Amino acid sequence: APNIFDNVAYYLYPKVNIPEAKESSSFVYNPILGKGYLYGGLNTMMKNRIWEFDSNTLQWKKIIAKNIPTVTKQRHSHSSCLFGNKLYFYGGVGKSGEYSFCPDLESFNLNTKMWDTPTITSNLFKRRRNHICVQIGNQMIIHGGTTEDYTFLNDCFIYNFDNNKISNIMAVETSSMTLPYVAFHSACVVAKQEVIYSNKNQI
Hints:
Blueprint: E1 26-30, E2 35-39, E3 50-54, E4 59-63, E5 74-76, E6 79-83, E7 86-90, E8 93-95, E9 99-101, E10 105-109, E11 114-116, E12 132-136, E13 139-143, E14 156-160, E15 166-168, E16 182-183, E17 186-190, E18 193-197, E19 200-201
Protein backbone atom coordinates (compact mmCIF):
# COMPACT_ATOMS: atom_id res chain seq x y z
CA ALA A 1 0.00 0.00 0.00
CA PRO A 2 1.24 3.54 -0.69
CA ASN A 3 2.33 5.77 2.14
CA ILE A 4 -0.74 7.97 2.22
CA PHE A 5 0.97 10.58 4.38
CA ASP A 6 3.58 11.21 1.64
CA ASN A 7 1.30 10.64 -1.32
CA VAL A 8 -0.53 13.61 -2.76
CA ALA A 9 -3.35 11.24 -3.72
CA TYR A 10 -4.28 11.24 -0.03
CA TYR A 11 -5.46 14.83 -0.45
CA LEU A 12 -6.80 14.40 -3.99
CA TYR A 13 -8.93 11.30 -3.70
CA PRO A 14 -12.16 11.42 -5.70
CA LYS A 15 -14.94 13.58 -4.32
CA VAL A 16 -17.58 11.11 -5.50
CA ASN A 17 -18.55 7.74 -4.06
CA ILE A 18 -17.24 8.56 -0.60
CA PRO A 19 -18.96 8.24 2.82
CA GLU A 20 -21.00 11.15 4.08
CA ALA A 21 -19.58 13.24 6.92
CA LYS A 22 -20.63 11.80 10.29
CA GLU A 23 -19.53 11.18 13.87
CA SER A 24 -19.48 8.23 16.29
CA SER A 25 -18.99 5.61 13.57
CA SER A 26 -16.51 2.72 13.76
CA PHE A 27 -13.61 1.71 11.52
CA VAL A 28 -11.60 -1.52 11.43
CA TYR A 29 -8.69 -2.36 9.14
CA ASN A 30 -7.36 -5.58 7.64
CA PRO A 31 -3.60 -5.04 7.06
CA ILE A 32 -3.28 -8.26 5.05
CA LEU A 33 -5.84 -7.22 2.43
CA GLY A 34 -5.18 -3.52 2.84
CA LYS A 35 -8.88 -2.83 3.34
CA GLY A 36 -10.78 -0.99 6.06
CA TYR A 37 -14.47 -0.97 6.94
CA LEU A 38 -16.48 2.02 8.14
CA TYR A 39 -19.90 1.46 9.71
CA GLY A 40 -22.72 3.43 11.25
CA GLY A 41 -22.47 6.86 12.78
CA LEU A 42 -24.62 9.93 13.06
CA ASN A 43 -25.09 13.22 11.21
CA THR A 44 -28.60 14.53 10.66
CA MET A 45 -29.78 10.94 11.04
CA MET A 46 -28.42 7.57 12.13
CA LYS A 47 -26.63 5.47 9.52
CA ASN A 48 -26.41 1.72 8.88
CA ARG A 49 -24.18 1.65 5.80
CA ILE A 50 -20.92 -0.25 5.52
CA TRP A 51 -18.17 1.35 3.43
CA GLU A 52 -14.98 -0.40 2.32
CA PHE A 53 -11.75 1.57 1.88
CA ASP A 54 -8.98 0.07 -0.27
CA SER A 55 -5.62 1.49 0.85
CA ASN A 56 -3.97 0.16 -2.31
CA THR A 57 -6.13 2.25 -4.65
CA LEU A 58 -7.29 4.90 -2.13
CA GLN A 59 -10.89 4.24 -3.24
CA TRP A 60 -14.12 3.86 -1.24
CA LYS A 61 -16.86 1.38 -2.11
CA LYS A 62 -20.30 1.04 -0.55
CA ILE A 63 -21.10 -2.55 0.43
CA ILE A 64 -24.64 -3.58 -0.48
CA ALA A 65 -26.11 -5.98 2.09
CA LYS A 66 -28.55 -8.70 1.04
CA ASN A 67 -30.60 -8.37 4.23
CA ILE A 68 -30.97 -6.02 7.20
CA PRO A 69 -29.82 -6.50 10.82
CA THR A 70 -32.32 -8.51 12.85
CA VAL A 71 -32.31 -6.38 16.01
CA THR A 72 -30.69 -2.98 15.56
CA LYS A 73 -31.30 -1.28 12.23
CA GLN A 74 -28.82 1.59 12.67
CA ARG A 75 -26.34 2.50 15.40
CA HIS A 76 -23.70 4.98 16.55
CA SER A 77 -21.22 5.20 19.45
CA HIS A 78 -20.72 1.45 19.12
CA SER A 79 -17.61 -0.71 18.79
CA SER A 80 -16.51 -3.01 16.01
CA CYS A 81 -13.89 -5.60 15.19
CA LEU A 82 -12.98 -7.97 12.38
CA PHE A 83 -12.57 -11.73 12.79
CA GLY A 84 -12.06 -13.93 9.75
CA ASN A 85 -14.48 -12.80 7.06
CA LYS A 86 -16.95 -11.23 9.51
CA LEU A 87 -17.39 -7.78 10.98
CA TYR A 88 -18.79 -7.62 14.52
CA PHE A 89 -20.66 -4.64 15.97
CA TYR A 90 -21.60 -4.29 19.62
CA GLY A 91 -23.54 -1.81 21.74
CA GLY A 92 -23.90 1.88 21.13
CA VAL A 93 -27.13 3.75 20.53
CA GLY A 94 -29.36 2.20 17.91
CA LYS A 95 -32.75 2.24 16.34
CA SER A 96 -35.15 -0.66 16.26
CA GLY A 97 -38.50 1.06 16.28
CA GLU A 98 -37.17 3.67 18.71
CA TYR A 99 -33.79 5.04 19.74
CA SER A 100 -32.24 3.17 22.66
CA PHE A 101 -29.02 1.72 24.00
CA CYS A 102 -28.19 -1.56 22.28
CA PRO A 103 -27.42 -4.73 24.24
CA ASP A 104 -27.02 -6.84 21.13
CA LEU A 105 -24.14 -8.09 19.02
CA GLU A 106 -24.53 -8.15 15.24
CA SER A 107 -22.21 -9.65 12.64
CA PHE A 108 -21.85 -9.04 8.90
CA ASN A 109 -20.34 -11.64 6.58
CA LEU A 110 -18.13 -9.91 4.00
CA ASN A 111 -18.30 -12.91 1.64
CA THR A 112 -22.05 -13.51 1.62
CA LYS A 113 -23.01 -9.86 2.38
CA MET A 114 -25.46 -11.13 5.02
CA TRP A 115 -26.23 -9.82 8.52
CA ASP A 116 -26.56 -12.25 11.41
CA THR A 117 -27.25 -12.04 15.15
CA PRO A 118 -25.04 -14.46 17.13
CA THR A 119 -26.83 -16.33 19.90
CA ILE A 120 -25.00 -15.25 23.05
CA THR A 121 -25.10 -17.74 25.90
CA SER A 122 -24.83 -15.15 28.68
CA ASN A 123 -26.50 -11.96 29.85
CA LEU A 124 -23.37 -10.39 31.34
CA PHE A 125 -23.36 -7.53 28.84
CA LYS A 126 -24.69 -4.22 30.09
CA ARG A 127 -26.13 -1.74 27.63
CA ARG A 128 -23.35 0.73 26.87
CA ARG A 129 -21.97 3.28 24.45
CA ASN A 130 -18.57 4.91 23.84
CA HIS A 131 -16.71 1.78 24.94
CA ILE A 132 -13.86 -0.02 23.18
CA CYS A 133 -13.31 -3.50 21.81
CA VAL A 134 -10.31 -5.24 20.31
CA GLN A 135 -9.80 -8.66 18.76
CA ILE A 136 -7.06 -10.94 20.11
CA GLY A 137 -6.96 -14.44 18.63
CA ASN A 138 -10.46 -15.90 18.63
CA GLN A 139 -11.71 -13.44 21.26
CA MET A 140 -13.12 -9.94 21.42
CA ILE A 141 -12.34 -7.88 24.53
CA ILE A 142 -14.83 -5.17 25.56
CA HIS A 143 -14.07 -2.51 28.15
CA GLY A 144 -15.67 0.55 29.73
CA GLY A 145 -18.18 2.96 28.26
CA THR A 146 -21.24 4.65 29.73
CA THR A 147 -24.69 3.33 30.63
CA GLU A 148 -28.07 4.82 29.81
CA ASP A 149 -27.93 6.98 32.94
CA TYR A 150 -24.39 8.13 31.97
CA THR A 151 -22.66 6.08 34.63
CA PHE A 152 -19.07 5.33 33.62
CA LEU A 153 -18.10 1.65 33.54
CA ASN A 154 -14.84 -0.15 34.34
CA ASP A 155 -15.89 -3.74 33.60
CA CYS A 156 -14.10 -5.87 31.03
CA PHE A 157 -15.50 -8.86 29.11
CA ILE A 158 -14.27 -11.48 26.68
CA TYR A 159 -16.49 -12.70 23.85
CA ASN A 160 -15.40 -15.98 22.23
CA PHE A 161 -16.10 -16.08 18.49
CA ASP A 162 -16.00 -19.89 18.37
CA ASN A 163 -18.66 -20.71 21.00
CA ASN A 164 -20.46 -17.33 21.45
CA LYS A 165 -19.73 -17.36 25.18
CA ILE A 166 -18.99 -14.31 27.30
CA SER A 167 -16.83 -14.25 30.41
CA ASN A 168 -15.97 -11.49 32.83
CA ILE A 169 -12.30 -10.56 33.21
CA MET A 170 -11.45 -10.20 36.88
CA ALA A 171 -8.42 -7.93 36.78
CA VAL A 172 -6.18 -7.70 39.85
CA GLU A 173 -6.45 -4.34 41.59
CA THR A 174 -3.95 -2.99 44.10
CA SER A 175 -3.87 0.01 46.41
CA SER A 176 -1.78 1.85 43.83
CA MET A 177 -3.66 0.79 40.72
CA THR A 178 -7.40 0.31 40.19
CA LEU A 179 -9.39 -0.25 37.04
CA PRO A 180 -10.44 3.12 35.61
CA TYR A 181 -14.05 4.07 35.03
CA VAL A 182 -13.63 5.37 31.52
CA ALA A 183 -15.44 6.07 28.25
CA PHE A 184 -14.74 7.81 24.93
CA HIS A 185 -11.36 6.06 24.94
CA SER A 186 -9.42 4.06 22.37
CA ALA A 187 -7.41 0.85 22.29
CA CYS A 188 -5.15 -1.24 20.11
CA VAL A 189 -3.35 -4.57 20.35
CA VAL A 190 0.42 -4.66 20.77
CA ALA A 191 2.14 -8.07 21.03
CA LYS A 192 -1.17 -9.72 21.97
CA GLN A 193 -1.80 -7.23 24.78
CA GLU A 194 -4.49 -4.60 24.86
CA VAL A 195 -3.24 -1.03 25.22
CA ILE A 196 -5.87 1.49 26.33
CA TYR A 197 -5.65 5.23 25.91
CA SER A 198 -8.05 7.15 28.15
CA ASN A 199 -9.99 10.13 26.89
CA LYS A 200 -12.56 10.81 29.61
CA ASN A 201 -12.76 9.46 33.14
CA GLN A 202 -15.51 9.65 35.67
CA ILE A 203 -14.51 12.01 38.50
